[in-house]
Amino acid sequence: MSDWKFKTSDTRPIYAVEGQSSSRRKLAWLGWIVAAAVLLYFMSPWIARAFLELSRSANESAYYDVLSDYMAEAEFLTLPTHTPMPTYTPPPTYTPVPTATNTPTPTPLPPAFIIQRMETQSQLVVVKDEVAKRNFHVGVKDGLCSHGGDFTAQGVIEAGIDFDEIDDESVTYNSRSQTYTLKLPAPEFTSCRIEYIRLVENSFSMCNPDWDRARTLAEVQVMRDFVAQSLEDGLLEDAAERSELILGDFVRTLTGKRVQVTFEKQRSSPKRDASCRPSAGGGWHYNRVKNVWEK
Hints:
Blueprint: H1 14-58, H2 60-77, H3 111-118, E1 127-142, E2 145-160, E3 171-174, E4 179-184, E5 188-202, H4 211-232, H5 235-255, E6 258-263, E7 285-287, E8 292-294
């Protein structure tokens, strides 16, 4: 056998080899196209600048017309910028304008006008005390015909100030301290009345007693007790406090100034209205030691 070596030839079909060569050529062209596009992309600013320079040199007026149209279109297409809302600024606080040092001081109200206005409050400064006493004895010594009885009574004692005693000197004004001073009369018993009285039990008598007279004497006797009881309960002090509160606030509102309220010194025996010190009349007087009415 001879040493001849035969080369194994490529048995692939001829059309397969040609197809591969065509694909490689297509890929090569595609690569060149991509490379050209990338190069054109990166060189586009220089190309555009060169084109603009060329067009400007060719027709300068047309260049500026195109440029102005482009700028107008760009401005139209540009979105509006965000404008922030204005921040809230609180209004400035009111500062009163200081008065000039030479501004004249307002003239104070005359005392007569203040007193006239105060009199409208006279009914508001009255305080009252409802009092009662049960089964108190009233004895009557009428010569040889002495008799007596037990009574029950209820009454009302009122206290306040006498506005008739207020004059122009009762209201003064201090311009330096801008203060009004009210000097009021001492509180007194302004009204007293018996609202109910009844004879509960009477004593036996051989004569014919005058029980109407005994009832009148009982009213006089119990009224004195009622006034004494109200004085002990502090009714006059309550009247002073109410007068100071109501009249002081009234004058303060009327004038717009500070007000100081004082009272005259109270008497050892407070002043009483005539209704608070009734008289038995007919010469009758009350013997406190014997607790009996005598002539």
